[in-house]
Amino acid sequence: MHSKGHVNFGRKVACVVLFCLSSLVLAAAPDSVYTLQAGAHQALVRAITQDSVCPQIAFDHHAAHPMRLRVAPQVLPARPDQARTDAGPITFDARVCESRWPRHAKQARVAGQTVAAPHRRIERIVVIGDTGCRMKATENAFQDCNDPQRWPLARVAASAAALQPDLVLHVGDIHYRESPCPAGNAGCAGAAWGYGYQAWKEDFFTPAKPLLEAAPWVFVRGNHESCWRAGQGWFRFIAAEPWTPKRSCDAPANDLVADYSEPYTVALSRHTQLLVFDSSITAGKPYSPEDAAYQIYARQLALAQRLMRLAPINFFVSHHPLLAVTSHWSADKDAAGGNPGLLSVFASHFPQRLFPDGVKLTLSGHIHAFEAINFVSDHPSSLVLGNSGSGTDAKLPRAYPEGTTLYPGVQVGEYFASSDFGFATLDRQSKAGGEHWLLTEYSVEGKPTFACQVGQGQSHCYKAD
Ligand SMILES: [Fe+2]
C-alpha cells in the first residue's frame, strides 16, 4: 500500500509536470502582437502566432479569453500575374488573430505581454515609410539585408521607439523581398523571400518589433502591397478592415474591389485628423474619365471629402505623392515626381488646389527620401517620408531645380530634401491661433536633422544642427 501510494503520488507529480509542460507548449508566445488604429475610433489588437490556437487576451482586470481567428494558416497557389512568376506557392504558416479594443479599456495583455494601448489625445507621431529590404530580380536590385548599415530598419525602429510615440504612421511599401538572393551574394545570403509569412516576418515584423510594441499603428498601403504583389499579406496582417475572400487579393477576379480600400480617418485631436487614402494600384500615367480606376478614385475622393468634414484640419496621407520632386531627377529631365494617375483624378475635381480646402498637409512616401515642400501658390505643403529602410536610390537636388514645374499652376516656395536614411516625428503644439505641429526629421540613430513648422497649410523648415 505504502509503495502504491508513492506510485500514485509520483504519477500525480508527473501529471502536474506534464500539464505544466503542455501548458507551456500551448502558451507559446506569439511572434508579434500589435495594435492598429482603424477608422471610427476603433482600435484592433492583432497577434501573429505559429501556435495551433489563438492566444488569450485580457483587458484591464477582466478574465482572459481567446482572441478571434482572423485568418488561418494556408498554402496558396501563386497568382498568374507577372510579378509572381518566380515565387511558387505562397505559404502563410501562421495564424492571424484579432480582438477589438473595448471603448473604455485602459490596458490589455496578450499571453502575459502588455499591448500598446490607444491614446485619446495624440501628442507625438512617429512617421516611417518604404522600409523593406529590396530583393527584385527584374531590376537586378539586391540590397544587403544582412547589413544593418545598408538596410537600417531595425535601427530606425529602435531609435523611433525610444522617442515614446503615441501613434506610429507607416506611409507604405512594407514588403520588398520578391526574389531569391542570388547565389554568392553575401549581402542577402539566406534571406527569406516571396509573398508568404516568413518574408513578411524578416522584412517587417522582426526588425520593427520595438516600434510595434511602442504605440498603435496606422498603415497606408503602398504599391508593394497591391494585389499582384504582396497584397495577400497586406490583408492578412496589416489592413484595418475585415479579411474576407473578396478582400484578400487571393483571386485576381476581385482586384477591382481589393486594390481600392476605402478612405478612413484617424482623429489626432479635436481639430486634426489623418485622412488615409489607398493609392496602391494607381497608374504612372494619367487616367481618362472612362477608366474604371478613374471612376473608383473619383468616388473615393468624394467619400474622403465627406470624411474631412469631421475635423477642420486634415492631413492627407497616401503612399504616392501628388506634389514632389522625383528621385530620378537630373538637369535634363522634368523634376516632377507626383503620381500622374492620382493627379489626373484630383485635378479634374479640384483644378486649382488639387485638394479640398480641408487638407492642410500631405504626407506620402514612395520616393526613398525626405522632402518638405512649401508652396507660394495655394497648395497644401507636401512631406515625403520614404527613407526608412529600402535602398535610397534617390538623387534629389539640394535646391529646387529652377525652371521646372511640379504641376501646372504650382509654384514652389521653400524646398528641403535629403537622400539619407531616417524617420520623422510630428509633435502637437497648441498655440494662440490654433493647433500647429512640429515635424522633426531624424537620422537612423535618432539625431534631429531638420525641423519644420507644419499643419496650417504652410510649412517652414530649418536645419536642426
Ligand atoms: Fe512605392
Describe the structure.
With 465 residues, this protein is an alpha+beta fold. The longest helix has 25 residues, at 2-26. It contains eight helices and 26 strands. The strands form six sheets. The protein has a seven-stranded mixed beta sheet with strand order 15-14-11-23-24-25-26, with helices on one face. Strands 16-17-18-19-21-20-22 form a seven-stranded mixed beta sheet, with helices on one face. β9 (108-110) and β10 form a beta hairpin. 18% of the residues lie in helices and 27% in strands. The protein has helices at 2-26, 153-161, 197-205, 209-212, 231-238, 255-258, 292-307, 340-349, and strands spanning 32-37, 43-49, 56-59, 65-66, 68-71, 74-76, 90-92, 95-100, 108-110, 113-114, 124-128, 135-136, 141-142, 167-170, 217-219, 264-267, 272-277, 313-318, 359-364, 370-375, 381-385, 412-418, 423-431, 434-442, 448-454, 460-463. The radius of gyration is 23 Å and the shape is globular. It has one domain (117-463): Metallo-dependent phosphatases (Purple Acid Phosphatase, chain A, domain 2). α7 (292-307) crosses α8 (340-349). Bound molecules: fe (ii) ion. Fe (ii) ion binds next to loops.
Short structural summary:
With 465 residues, this protein is an alpha+beta fold. The chain is built from 8 helices and 26 strands. The strands form 6 sheets. The chain has a 7-stranded mixed beta sheet, with helices on one face. The protein has a 7-stranded mixed beta sheet with strand order 16-17-18-19-21-20-22, with helices on one face. Strands 1-2-8-5 form a 4-stranded antiparallel beta sheet, covered by helices on one side.
